[in-house]
Amino acid sequence: MRRGRFAPSPTGELHIGNAFTAVMAWLQMRSVGGDFVLRIEDIDEARCRSHYVAQVMEDLRWLGLDWDEGPDVGGAHGPYQQSARLPEYEAALHQLQVAGYLYPCFCSRAELVQVASAPHGLFADEPRYSGRCRHLTEAQRGARAQQKRPSLRFCAPDKEVVVLDRLIGETRVNPLDGGDFIVRRADGVFSYQLAVVVDDAAMEITDVLRGADLFSSAPRQISLYQALGRRPPTFTHVPLVVDAKGRRLSKRNRSSTVRAMRESGVAAEEIVGVISYLAGLSDSIRPTSPSELVERFDLTRLHKRPVQMDELCMRRLKIYETF
Ligand code: GLU
């Protein structure tokens, strides 16, 4: 049985970019008769707001999407909200620690900037951690732990992994090029990388479809799957939606949120029609529902580059530039 998911973080209202990804992930599963799971990624509670959880679910339903398992409908793989899954992350962390994959990192933010080496390849969007704390002795660790609570880093393996992406194809990458990464922050919060792998494995997700901005996380996640002795899913990274000037549409532009469009009288079918057009599933913008697209869904027709909302799309969805 194929199983896919949509995993929004409730840090703001659902925007057109999130809606695009949600519709694609839903279509990918519905077109093969697979299960679709909704998981709320509220691991970083300081950044999440609980009222967005209900709102995101309502917006998704209003667009015409449904899910077989999720926070409101339950299911055999719950809980479906990360804030309720901390014991699972703790257990995985313990497993990694016992197997020798983790080390404490005492670097401060300022030091991290100072010691970061040049960004590299697939990981070019962030500086690489030098590995400075990897080789501290036990005595040094003990002494530093008196002063400061460390974060925990995962030793990225110096061994090529293959990222199999249904849209982008096969990419070979050495996870160490991105440097050792944090699995638990100094304040005790588990990292996105750890939580997402633990959850996708526990929820038996076979197909991860998400935005292309997360492509650079795939090699790290594959290394975590391997270290935990789990089989990685296949990935599909769909293009990001950008505005007419090539800028990424974000939650900061309120008019690009599903809620704002709905409030200004835009119909759900209109939004899904634009999404289908942007994805390359329809040649023109025609109002439609997600279920009408199921038969037409074909991953090979999807664009690989960022998809641009031209003036016409923006006007139809009543999205305005705010700056
Ligand atoms: N929670 C992440 C986000 O909202 C998505 C994580 C994922 O799909 O792997 O950007």
Automatic annotation (TrEMBL):
Organism in which the protein naturally occurs: Alicyclobacillus fastidiosus
Residues noted as binding ATP in the record, renumbered to the chain: K251
Family the entry assigns: Belongs to the class-I aminoacyl-tRNA synthetase family. GluQ subfamily.
Domain Glutamyl/glutaminyl-tRNA synthetase class Ib catalytic: 4-304
Statement: the UniProt record of this protein carries the keyword Zinc: yes
Enzyme Commission code: 6.1.1.-
Protein name: Glutamyl-Q tRNA(Asp) synthetase
HAMAP family: Glu_Q_tRNA_synth
Gene coding for it: gluQRS
Binding site for L-glutamate: R5, F6, A7, P8, S9, E41, Y192, R210
Residue positions of motif 'HIGH' region: 8-18
Major enzyme class: ligase
Binding site for Zn(2+): C105, C107, Y129, C133
SUPFAM superfamilies: Nucleotidylyl transferase
Keywords, alphabetical: Aminoacyl-tRNA synthetase, ATP-binding, Ligase, Metal-binding, Nucleotide-binding, Protein biosynthesis, Zinc
Family matches, as InterPro entries: aa-tRNA-synth_I_CS (IPR001412), Glu-Q_tRNA(Asp)_Synthase (IPR022380), Glu/Gln-tRNA-synth (IPR000924), Glu/Gln-tRNA-synth_Ib_cat-dom (IPR020058), GluQ/Sye (IPR049940), Rossmann-like_a/b/a_fold (IPR014729)
Gene3D superfamilies for the chain: HUPs (3.40.50.620)
A Pfam match: tRNA-synt_1c
Cofactor note: Binds 1 zinc ion per subunit.
PROSITE patterns: AA_TRNA_LIGASE_I (PS00178)
A GO term for molecular function: ligase activity
UniProt-listed PANTHER family: GLUTAMATE--TRNA LIGASE, GLUTAMYL-Q TRNA(ASP) SYNTHETASE
Location of the motif 'KMSKS' region: 248-252
Cofactor field: Zn(2+)
Annotated function: Catalyzes the tRNA-independent activation of glutamate in presence of ATP and the subsequent transfer of glutamate onto a tRNA(Asp). Glutamate is transferred on the 2-amino-5-(4,5-dihydroxy-2-cyclopenten-1-yl) moiety of the queuosine in the wobble position of the QUC anticodon.
